[in-house]
Amino acid sequence: MTATEPVSGDEDRTSRFLTAADPLRGLIVPMVLLLSIAVVVIIAISWFAAERLDHETENRDVALARTALATEAERLGFLAKDLSFWDEAIERLVILGDEEWADDNVGSYAYETSRVGLVIVVTALGQTRLLFRDGKPYRGKAQEFLSPDMLEFLTRRANAAPMEEPEPVVSYAVIGGQVHTLAASAFTPESGVEVVTQRRTRPILILASALDTAFLEQISDAFLLEDLAVSLALPDEARVYAPISARDEWATAYLTWDPSRPGTRLRQDLLVPVVISLLAIALLGLLYARRLARARRESEAISMALERERELRDLKSRFISTVSHEMRTPLATIQAATDLLDHFGNRMTAEERQKEMDTIRGRVAAIDDLLGEALLLEKGETRQSVPEDLDLAALIRAQWQNNLPSEGRALELTDERTNPATVRFDRRTLNQIIGNLLQNALKYSSAETTVAVRLAETVDRLVIAVTDHGIGIPQKDLAHVREPFSRGGNVADVGGVGFGLSIVDRAIALLGGSFSIESREGEGTTVTVLLPLSARKEPSR
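Above: the chain sequence. Below: its structure as tokens.
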């Protein structure tokens, strides 16, 4: 007993140590949670601070751009006032029309020193007295550069200034695809000349300066605006812009640039440490997440395998049902022919017996074709086409009389073609199209109604329209009737599994054509087939 007591004491101490360590292990989850919350809070604060910094920087840049535009407008307005409030300028420009003096003091001078690309002197009667373009005299009229509305606006606003001192008016216009700042000022005698107090229309001076590359580079360098440009359309949300407009005008254009976004750059700089912190936290839950993901993948794989198994089983069942459904008509024909030969063969002539034998052979060939085409359709394949010259109307009548259970019902065949030539198509494929459409028309309409077939043509297309006056197709089912095994919801106990139109769709595609369906539930259905007339042969006379 005494020999085991030390061991018992050691175990007791170990047990007490583990018991004391249990609360520490229990603190791991709260510590991880608190750390995660702290990181999220820091990220959120940094995010909102960066967003606010970007917003304030954008507002500051817009204010700077507006200031630059206002400064440019004031500069041009001051120049216009200075030139129009000058007695010698009034005499030389308005009265005498001295082009040489105007060139030295206004035209080339203003172009070289102040980037004034257009100088126009307009008389009180609205006529162009002098015009300089890019510092050179121009023999033209102001209306070539400014709209009548803009000229009327500038004249009216400039003449609204007091008669004793001009007050320039500033606006903007697009001239030659480029935005220009406009400044207009009424010619007014300097002080010392007798002031005319009676209001009258005065000649005006119009200056235009383009917001060109030099202007944009000057603003970009001064205010650190990146990729500065002038846009006639409203820029997208990715760029910052300031409208170019006078106080009471709509925006003529927009001064636009790439946002500097210092807050975004700050977030990018913080991205690495934040990602490291998040990865460290994510590692704590990695094993659990992997186990959950593995279990979910296994569950999804099992579900997908079961779903595929169900689909394959359903497809197999539908395929067998479809083949059986499509074989009933030829088998019934074979049965009828064999019954005739069995019961009345000794009374029939050789020609009649041969006709019944040909019918049996034809139905056997039809069954073989059906099985082959059904299998090819199920595999998404097709056989090689063999085009031949066909009498379309005769082919339709033969389908109606020999291959369909028409039971004496009337077929209304209308040939609207101006030149009923023989068409050239693959016989088996065309028989599939016409046979399935006529069979559907018979199946889904009552015996008292007729089935109509209309033949027409366009420049390069053959038109075959099959119309019945039966139960129609519900609108909600029209989009799916071309799919295999799809049927309308109103077919009730009418036999079939929805294989016909999928065969028609595939057959028409093989011939390079298309078809459309127009249907009203309870009124009937019209299927219109368009086939390319790649080759044709004139009927013999």
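Residues 1-8, 13-22, 535-541 have pLDDT under 50 and may be disordered.
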